[in-house]
Design brief:
Helix content: 25-40%
CATH topology of the largest domain: Aminopeptidase
Oligomer: single chain
CATH architecture of the largest domain: 3-Layer(aba) Sandwich
Shape: elongated
Strand content: 15-25%
Structural class: alpha/beta
Number of domains: 4
Number of strands: 20
Strand order of the largest sheet: 12-7-8-9-15
Largest sheet: 5 strands, mixed
Radius of gyration: 67 Å
CATH superfamily of the largest domain: LCP protein
Distance between the termini: 186 Å
Length: 561
């Protein structure tokens, strides 16, 4: 390529002096009257001569158009390409007017000086120039963009931190809720377990504990509150009585029937020892109640005399009873042999009033009175299971019996008491216990611990063996006053008097017996005290509760007054 070319093909020539940083050729006008200038420094160094293009815009020279002839036209100057600043605005050009002063205009004037021409579009040059770093421009778009990106990044970081913090808080809150639920569940289960154990404790159903008070301390048997009445069943069709205690333990919410054998030894106020059966016949309800309280250490509130006709009516009022019978019971009103029994042995037998009375009073041949007493207890518990638990309704049932009660027990009191026991019997919180009595009528150690102490909360005060010789007197003289005379003699002699009743027929000779060889000497002393011959003393059977038995015959002479 030729390094020179004619701008208008009219004499002005341009010489290629080099290439700029964009690879564009740089020309310099060469005048015939002016020698050729040095080439353009591509790195933008100051040229000693000429007006080369400064690629970094460090000077004020502007590129000149190759079409510029150096003549000042009279009209507007032609704006050559590339005469705009990097921001697309018209470049300011210093011009010297005719007065020698410099003025700035928005248009590129035509000058006579030689300029370099870069044949490129103004827009491309401006963009290229803008993309290059320049020392005269302190701030660039990238610098501001970096600040904006930093702010955006900061916001992103803040948002991420907030998200992370929120997520952590949510996790911690979820953990706290889970822990709270677990703790709540444990507390609920603990409360349920405590409530169940507390109920069992309060009801007295925990093994080893009879009951406890509200403070958690076990309540002793003696401190428990009980309501007690005594019931005497009188067999009006035959003979004999049967006695029981009905106990309502208001502390443990349990009911109990305590069966008292007729051989139980009781002591009267005057110190006379007698049996329960004889006390009921001779002393009646009031005397027997006091005697039982003395022996058992109880506090009986009243007496319920229940004759067999009233028991019959009571069973009919509650609508028959169901019990497990332990023997066949014949009809007491039938004389026919081989007839079917009135009550059949078996489980869950339904008994009417008549059947219940027959079963409660029946004693089979060879059986003790204890067997009959236990049947009476079965009948009473069966009645309580069928009786209403409503106090008012139970009172109405008692009033319907139309029986005459002991003055110490009213209809309302008896009705309310039986209703409580009926509630225990229906709920399975009811039991029957037999008071163990020894052959002499005193209480055994078993009776003291299992019944007197635990069930009744009392203290046994039965006459101790060896404290005084108990002498049973049966009058066979035909004179009823003889018994009282003999009692006075024995009590004054330091013996305990037991009334063994009156013999069916009189006998001429008195008789003294002892069962235990250890009591032989005592029997001899009793004979001497009564004024009877010692030859009348023999080993044999004795009456219940007695150490020595005496049958007074017609040979007995009471002491003179």
């Amino acid at each position: 390529m030729n390094d020179r070319y004619d701008g208008y093909a009219g004499g002005d020539q341009y010489e290629l002096v080099g290439y700029d940083e964009f690879g564009q050729p740089v020309y310099q006008q060469v005048s015939p009257q002016q020698p050729q200038q040095q080439g353009y420094d591509t790195y933008g160094q100051q040229q000693p001569q000429g007006y080369g293009y400064d690629p970094y815009a460090t000077g004020h020279q502007q590129p000149m158009s190759p079409y510029d002839t150096g003549q000042q036209p009279s009209g507007p100057a032609y704006d050559a390409p590339g005469t705009y600043d990097p921001y697309g605005r018209p470049a300011q050009t210093d011009q010297t007017d005719q007065t020698g002063q410099v003025s700035s205009t928005g248009q590129q004037p035509r000058v006579a000086e030689q300029t370099a021409y870069i044949p490129q579009q103004a827009g491309s040059a401006a963009k290229a120039e803008e993309s290059e770093p320049r020392a005269d421009r302190d701030y660039r778009t990238e610098q501001f963009a970096f600040v904006e990106e930093q702010e955006a990044d900061s916001e992103d970081v803040i948002d991420w931190l907030k998200f992370t913090e929120n997520r952590t808080e949510r996790r911690e809150e979820a953990k706290r809720r889970t822990r709270s639920r677990i703790i709540g569940l444990v507390v609920v289960l603990a409360l349920l377990a405590t409530g169940g154990v507390g109920y069992l404790w309060y009801a007295g159903k925990l093994p080893g504990l009879s009951s406890s008070d509200k403070s958690g301390t076990p309540t002793s048997a003696a401190a428990q509150k009980r309501d007690v009445i005594v019931v005497h069943l009188h067999n009006t069709s035959g003979s004999g009585t049967s006695t029981m205690l009905l106990v309502n333990n208001t502390t443990t919410k349990q009911g109990t029937t305590v069966l008292l054998p007729n051989s139980l030894a009781l002591t009267d106020d005057d110190g006379t020892t007698t049996t329960l059966a004889k006390s009921v016949d001779d002393d009646g309800s009031a005397g027997t109640l006091d005697a039982i309280d003395t022996v058992l250490g109880t506090d009986i509130e009243g007496t319920w005399r229940l004759d067999t006709p009233y028991l019959n009516n009571l069973v009919e009022l509650v609508g028959n009873i169901e019990i497990d019978t332990n023997t066949d019971v014949p009809d007491p009103d039938s004389d026919k042999k081989g007839e079917a029994p009135l009550v059949t042995k078996g489980t869950d037998q339904s008994l009417s009033g008549k059947m219940a009375v027959a079963y409660a009073t029946y004693t089979a041949p060879g059986e003790s009175q204890t067997a009959q007493l236990e049947r009476f207890g079965q009948v009473m518990q069966g009645v309580l299971r069928k009786l209403t638990s409503d106090p008012q309704a139970a009172t109405t049932t008692v009033q319907t019996l139309a029986q005459i009660l002991d003055p110490s027990l009213t209809d309302n009191d008896l009705g309310a008491f039986l209703a409580k026991l009926a509630d225990h019997a229906k709920g399975g919180d009811y039991k029957t216990a037999l008071l163990p009595v020894q052959e002499d009528g005193t209480l055994s150690e078993e009776a003291t611990d299992s019944v007197v102490k635990d069930v009744l909360g009392g203290t046994a005060k039965s006459p101790e063996a060896g404290a005084a010789v108990r002498v049973g007197i049966k009058n066979a003289t035909g004179d009823k006053d003889t018994t009282e005379q003999a009692r006075v003699v024995l009590v004054n002699g330091g013996y305990t008097f037991l009334d063994s009743g009156t013999a069916a027929a009189a006998q001429s000779v008195s008789q003294i017996t002892y069962a235990d060889a250890a009591q032989k000497d005592n029997a001899v002393e009793v004979a001497k005290t009564l004024g009877l011959p010692t030859s009348s003393v023999k080993k044999g059977t004795v009456t219940s509760n007695a150490d020595v038995s005496v049958v007074l015959g017609q040979d007995y002479e009471p002491p003179s007054s």
